[in-house]
Design brief:
The chain has a domain of about 240 residues: FAD/NAD(P)-binding domain (3-Layer(bba) Sandwich). Helix 1 packs parallel to helix 6. It has an eight-stranded mixed beta sheet. By secondary structure, the protein is α+β, with helices and mostly antiparallel strands. Strand 9 and strand 10 form a beta hairpin. The chain contains eleven helices and 20 strands. It is globular, with a radius of gyration of 21 Å. It binds adenosine-5-diphosphoribose and P-hydroxybenzoic acid. P-hydroxybenzoic acid binds next to loops.
Length: about 400
Amino acid sequence: MQTQVAIIGAGPAGLLLAHMLHRRGIESVILERHSRAYIERRIRAGVMEHDVAALLERVGLGARMRREGLVHQGINLRFAGRTVRVDFAGLVGRSVMVYGQHEVVKDMVRARLEAGGTILFEAEAVRLEGLEGERPVVVFRHGGLEERLEAAVVAGCDGFHGIARRSIPAAHITTFERRYPYAWLGILAEARPASEELIYARHERGFALLSMRSPTLSRLYIQVPPTTDLADWPDERIWDELELRLAAPGFHLERGPVVQKDLTVMRSFVTEPMRYGRLLLAGDAAHIVPPTGAKGLNLAVADVTHLARALFAFFERGDERPFEAYSRLCLQRIWQVQHFSWWMTTMLHREEGALPFDHHRQLGELEAVTGSRAALTWLAEHYTGLPLDFSEIA
Ligand code: APR
Ligand code: PHB
């Protein structure tokens, strides 16, 4: 098999890239290890930055999001028995879109298939060859056979556990990593969200987050140790814990059937550079943020806008220079978002074994941030997202 761009992974990064290339007449093939049903059901975060939602609209992927997504003009920070609303609209004139990542994935898969694009499901890339040359090859397993996909460029959009990043010789990349001594236990519940906007709660018992997917579906999280066994957390225990951590005067948490339960480990991770020869990495394949602030999907979209422009230059003008600039452009945003995600995470989580000094310092930080319009503006700028470069995206 041959194509112009071989894309490994049908997550938001790979799917959006294929879609944007198609709109400029550039052909691609996506290889995806899992089935279509699996990737369309996989529950992930659900908050899109202002410009990310605008970008999806701009490239024709916004119709269902506009109908079913929830526009949020702010979030709440709850700590020390108080709740402070961060008014995005008032502070920065921007909002976010609450719309499940798997819904975005469904919209992208449908658009790709309707346009006659190729996504090979249950096709696992196992090896990359010739990355230093002009015709790299992705060797993949599909239906029990080993096959070859030859292209001019390989886009590694295969997430944190994929093979693209690991195919780069160690001497050519540097990775930066930080792990956190806690995880999130998340539930999706058929219950009316107890608040119209998200609540990020810092509590003596640990962090809790109230989020949602629709007016009838709640998405809730509690901080737990990374070694947690879900079997130790029957639904009632989770609800009881959420109730304690989210408690506030007049606040009533609605309970309902739990339809999904999962554990998310927390990690910050960056790869530099994001390119080796004709292999370019995008999204989780290159970086991971802890989920506080919901930046994973947003960062993947930002990478893909740069990658798409680099590929337009290459296929339309034979210009390879943007490949050189690709990492630098992406990393400029990535490190800022790494900082923001780390900051939200460490400000709101309770660290086992931390000094009493640090608990008080954390509360001092929350007081300082919520008491300052300048600090709240900074939070709002980053939460609603740094501006995206829309040039050449049509
Ligand atoms: N061959 C083919 N496909 C693969 C392989 C492989 N060897 N390894 C991984 N994949 C697929 C995965 O099954 C997955 O569908 O690559 C896809 C990667 O998608 P994501 O993990 O969603 O990563 P990305 O597109 O970068 O999206 C980033 O989505 O995953 C969330 O937390 C993440 O919110 C962030 C955003
Ligand atoms: C979610 O709705 O899944 C969500 C929302 C906000 C976050 C993380 C996850 O910071």
